[in-house]
Amino acid sequence: MRFPVLWRPPATPTLQPVRASVESSGLRSQHTVAASVSKGPTDFEECKRCSWFSSGGPREGRRPSHACAILTMLLSVALGIVFSCTAVATERAADANRGAPAPLLNYSWISLPPEHVPYFLHNNKRVAKRCRRDPLCPFKDAPLGLFACWGYEKSCDPGMRFSYPVCTRADSGWARSLEAAQELFWKQADFGYVKERLSELKTLCKASKPGDSSLRCSSHTRFCKATNLYLDLRRPSRSHERYKEDFIQKGEIGGHCRLNKRALAAEGEHKSPLQSWYAELQTYTELDFHPIEDGHCDIIIEKPTVFMKLDAGVNMYHHFCDFVNLYISQHINNSFSADINIVMWDTSFYGYGDLFGETWKAFSDYDIIHLKTYDSKRVCFKDAFFSLLPRMRYGLFYNTPLISDCYSEGMFRAFSQHVLHRLDIPQDGPKEGRVRVTLLARSTEYRRILNQVELVNALKTVPLLEVNVVDYKYKDVPFLEQLRITHNSDIFIGMHGAGLTHLLFLPDWAVVFELYNCQDESCYRDLARLRGIRYVTWQKMDKVVPQDKGHHPTLGDHPKFTNYSFDVGEFMRLVLEAVDDVTHHPKWPSQAPRDEL
After folding, report:
1. CA 561 to CA 552: how far, in whole Å?
2. Which among 160, 154, 158, 81 is positioned nearest to 119, based on CA atoms?
3. Fewer CB in a 10 Å sphere around the end CB: N or C, the chain?
4. To which H or E segment does residue 138 belong?
């Protein structure tokens, strides 16, 4: 932008013209005043001395020079133009923002792994429809849910399922053909399990009109969904028991709906703290008032709420039964928003020790609420479900009977992806020319590797292997860091113990090596089959040496209560077999070198 020449200085003294430049954007400006004279002080310096530029004007008794006045005038004009341009530009930017198209939907709540988005859209037609019409939808590259399906949907083509089990043979005790074996495993431990639970849902308390309450449950009240639920905790009979079966009395839980008392009473066969919700719901009462509309609630919870009864929070194997069943429950409920409350149902006065508390962030944006928080109040929940439980009969994954010789990259893989995505755990590999080996050490009294240093030194003689020894003490290694290490391991080695539950978060191409299973053969082998990764364990019993017979506090001799030494040659043979499995996996980069063994 050029400014008109407003003034020409006299011939003597010579004064250079004032220059002012303004960036064409109008958002930033630069002002330059350059003046020089052939001799003596510049008029600019004189202006400064007379304080003409100060807020108080010229000093009393002095008049600014002609040049000073002109300079000041030009600066004022330039500044006025700049501020005017800036104001106009700001107004135009605001107008532009007001005119910019807005998304038809706030998509930020759909925080899912990219691979899961098509399946989510298949089950949420309204969101998929808006996304198709919305040029700003971030899921334009997804097939918008037209064909992809988890497998439990009524309209799902079996060929479009998220996954399907692989069986190497048919166990005659379970199935007569490979196809029958695959279908059975899918129902036992994959998304067919969700389909089975969905098919069991029945209405136990029916709403008569909009605004009424309702209660629907799967068989044996293992999963239940409630609306406008009334819970009276004004007189809680708390004790040292975490799951007191008579904690809720008649009239203290219920809703305004038509209760099928006979149907509810028939669901009590599995009554047990971590197997069923029957103890909590057996006194569900048909109320003669509308809890919310008639003002019978001290607190009204608008946000969707999940009730959970939790297993041991200090043991990863048991606690992740809680998380896996919460994830499965979300599929049953078709709801994956983290804008929910999770209420820990606990009838004791105690808190809950949780070594893996960061995992809750994968499911809720808020802290877990202990039931005792609501003591002395009548609480009404507009929308709630009672999650599947961690130790159900034929549940997942504690006490899960599985058909042999089958595995799946289905529901447990989806769980792993979901948690890793929500917790923002990155995958930094595979590394070209390297296989990352993580050995999980134990600082516990039992099941330690007595010749661990010797085994690690043997691993380090193989140039291909990048060896890392870790001890997952929660005080030293935060759980999210544990997950990062595990997820970036190609081979994960450890003794039998809850730490091997980390195999859930290994990459798809990884191998888990249970160094010695301590005669508990199925536990982590089956968990690896659920996750769909390769499992290896010690094979030659003459090449492992126990420290002694073991010292169980009540049972006497026991293989889990001692320590072990391992033959180095046999150990390396098994590790190199695992390396071969990793580097030949379909998801391992084909260009990775395989000749360094």
Report:
1. 6
2. 160
3. N
4. none
Distance (Å, whole) CA 182 – CA 367: 40
Q: Quick check: helix, strand or coil at residue 291? A: coil
For residues 398 and 391, is the Cβ–Cβ distance under 8 A? yes
* CA–CA gap between residue 1 and residue 594 (Å, rounded): 65
Torsion over CA: 311, 317, 329, 104 (sign) = positive
- Cα radius of gyration rounded to whole Å, the chain: 35
Answer whether 547's CB lies under 8 Å from 564's CB. yes
User: Nearest Cα to 442, choosing from 481, 500, 489, 486?
Assistant: 500
In b/e form, how buried is each residue of 302-324, taking b as 16+ CB within 10 angstroms? eebbbbbbbbbbebbbbbbbbbb
The number of angstroms, rounded, from the C-alpha of 555 to the middle of its chain's C-alpha atoms is 40
Q: Are 492 and 511 in contact, with CB atoms under 8 Å apart?
A: yes
CB-based contacts of 396: which residues, under 8 Å, 6+ apart? Answer: 189, 193, 321, 324, 325, 328, 388, 530
Report helix, strand or coil for 545: strand
Q: What are 581's two structure tokens?
A: 């499995």
Give all domains of the chain, ordered by start, each with its CATH number: 19-99 (no CATH), 192-386 (no CATH), 425-583 (3.40.50.720)
* SS3 letters across 251-287: CCEEECCEECHHHHHCCCCCCCCCCCCHHHHCCCEEC
The residue-averaged pLDDT of 405-413 equals 97
User: Three-class SS of residue 231?
Assistant: strand
Query: What mean pLDDT do residues 170-196 have?
Result: 95
Indicate the range of 9-18, 223-232, 433-442 predicted with least confidence: 9-18
Is the pLDDT score of 507 beyond 80?
Answer: yes
